[in-house]
Amino acid sequence: MVDATTATVIDAALILVAALCLLCGYRVIRGPTVPDRVVGLDTIATNVIAIAMLVALKTDRGLFVTVSIVLAIIGFLSTVTVAKYITEGDIITRRQR
Amino acid sequence: MVDLHVVEQVTISALVVVGCFFLAVGTLGLLRLPNVYNRMHATSKPTTLGTATIFLAGFVQFGPGGAGLTSLVGIVFLFLTVPTGAHMIARAAQKIGVPFLGSVTWPTEHRDADPDSPATRPEGDDTPED
């Protein structure tokens, strides 16, 4: 279990990263192009991975490390999927000869 | 004699602070930079570094087995996937025609000196270029 001082640092970090997620939401809403919004969502996903890791540190449970890795996998898959959707208009496509 | 527990706690705190600094830098770049390519440059690298640093704090906390090992796997996974995702978004943005800033060009336009490069073939040649 972490000390009281370290717990305070982790609490402040949790508040900061949550605020950063909200700031990324500004780019998601106001972004002029679709790739801007995708980049904002990707940054939110990475920040949520950091939040899961901070919760793992705060509660001293290794389960949340696995949660953060699963979030990383989902974030990567969604980024690649949306990038393919923007480019080709479809997600699973065959190249037309 | 310094207590090992104190060293561990100080290391965790320092790694968390450094990771939050890098996350804040990445988000500021996402908000302030002028172009989608510049924003991608700002988010992919510092955000990866920040999250990897917080994963390292998890490795310090949980030790070299179980959840600590999972943290190291998470670092490797982030360093593999985040550049791949940013590359995919950059290609998608270039294909839908997001303009570049200033004198920036797409890299294939610089290969004119290389005669064997597929980018210098004539326009009627309908090979898919990607």
From TrEMBL, chain A:
Membrane topology: Multi-pass membrane protein
Cellular compartments annotated: Cell membrane
Domain of life, per lineage: Archaea
Pfam families registered for this protein in UniProt: MrpF_PhaF (PF04066)
UniProt xrefs under InterPro entries: MrpF/PhaF-like
GO CC, alphabetical: plasma membrane
Spans through the membrane: 6-26, 38-57, 63-87
UniProt entry keywords in alphabetical sequence: Cell membrane, Membrane, Transmembrane, Transmembrane helix, Transport
Single annotated GO MF: sodium:proton antiporter activity
PANTHER family assigned: NA(+)/H(+) ANTIPORTER SUBUNIT F1 (PTHR34702), NA(+)_H(+) ANTIPORTER SUBUNIT F (PTHR34702:SF1)
Protein name, per record: pH regulation protein F
Biological source species: Halovenus carboxidivorans
UniProtKB/TrEMBL annotation, chain B:
Annotated source species: Halovenus carboxidivorans
MF terms (GO), sorted A to Z: sodium:proton antiporter activity
Organism domain of life: Archaea
Keyword tags: Membrane, Transmembrane, Transmembrane helix
PANTHER family: ANTIPORTER SUBUNIT MNHG2-RELATED
The protein's name: Cation:proton antiporter
Residue stretches spanning the membrane: 12-34, 46-63
Region span, Disordered: 107-130
UniProt-listed Pfam families: PhaG_MnhG_YufB (PF03334)
